[in-house]
Amino acid sequence: MKFIRQDVVDPAALPAGQGQFDIAFYGREDLDDRSKFSAPLSRSLARRSALVQYDPLRFELKVDGISFRGDDLQDVVRHFPATSIVIDATTMEFPEIALILRAYRRLSFQPARCVFIYTEPAEYVRRPAGESPAPGSAFDLSLGFRAKNAIPAFTPLLSGGNKAHLVAFLGFEGARLLRVLNDDDGHFYTDVTVVFGTPPYQATWDMDALMANTRLIDQFSPSVRFSGANNPRGAYLLLQEVDRGLDGSPCNRLAVAPFGTKPTAIGAALYCVEMDRMRVVYDHPERKAGRTRGVHRTHWFEVE
Asked: Domain range for residue 182?
């Protein structure tokens, strides 16, 4: 796999309507200003488009209304043949991105050229000033978390003889990784590295993420790393570095928790698809409508 482009683009200058890609995949577009902006932009780049939704309770990926088992994705490529795809990363969640990538980069006859469109928000919505948030909950982003169910194809077994080094990309919701580590209680995740998005999209956002996760750092004392908030390649290379360092360590598995920015989740999804023994830790948040306001920069990430 090769990263061939990571740019901030002017949406008005993109060749909209020319259909240079075979198909565009997008998610729910009624959440906020940027989802309403990004999904139509991604659709305009391709000759056809399909809404993608993942059901973590049924382990099913629904594409354009057709349901596919998460562990049997060959039929996705047969129903929607393509050698070039657009993924609207603004609106698609991590499981949807990872499973579409697996279908088109691992299970297809030839790995598809893949472009990700991601639009930053102008701001994230904070809780009301009069409300006293618990540590790690200053931002009002999710209604709840739907399941702890694993994502098919990214669930290698952990056991007494198969321990994992967990790499967690962190954001504003500090309780997410705390729940994972408290539930595990040291049984399977023997080494933990947390990654903050630095440089951030905007000044102070990295400090907001750090403050949201202060309790976690105090309680578990993980290793701390940094990778650019808008840099999928940086996230990919960080995982590759940690993975290569497993030789000679007590861990023989690498696990990733993509709880940070969407570009770092893209890098994590790409690495998971490329490697067979990756385990994904995900809690399937139910994103809150109006969680962000405004539209900021739009990014074009491309791999082949």
From this structure: 142-287
pLDDT band at 228 (very low <50, low <70, confident <90, very high): very high
Question: pTM higher than 0.85 for the full model?
Answer: yes
Mind spelling out the 3-state secondary structure of the chain? CCEEEEEEECHHHCCCCCCCEEEEEECCCCCCHHHHHHHHHHHHCEEEEEEEEEECCCCEEEECCEEEECCCCHHHHHHCCCCEEEEECCCCCHHHHHHHHHHHHCCCCCCCEEEEEEECCCEECECCCCCCCCCCCCECCEEEECCCCCCCCCCCCCECCECEEEEEEECCCCHHHHHHHHHHCCCCEEEEEEEEECCCCCCCHHHHHHHHCHHHHHHHCCEEEEECCCCHHHHHHHHHHHHHCCCCCCCCEEEEEECCCHHHHHHHHHHHHHCCCEEECCCCEEECCCCEECCCCEEEEEEC
Asked whether residue 127 is assigned to any structural domain, the reply reads no
CA angle 214, 34, 87 (to 5 degrees): 90
Q: Any idea what the CATH number is for the domain that residue 197 is in?
A: 3.40.50.11700
Query: Rounded to an integer, what distance in angstroms lies between the CA atom of residue 98 and that of residue 161?
Result: 27
Q: Residue 159 is encoded by which pair of tokens?
A: 């056991």
Each residue of 33-81: pLDDT tens digit?
999 999 999 999 999 999 999 999 999 999 999 999 988 899 999 999 9
Structural domains of the chain, count: 2
Kindly state whether residue 130 falls inside one of the protein's structural domains.
no
Instruction: Clarify whether residues 180 and 239 are in a common domain.
Output: yes
Q: pLDDT tens for residues 182-204?
A: 998 888 899 999 999 999 888 88
- Same domain membership, residue 163 and residue 67: no
114 and 185 fall within a common domain:
no
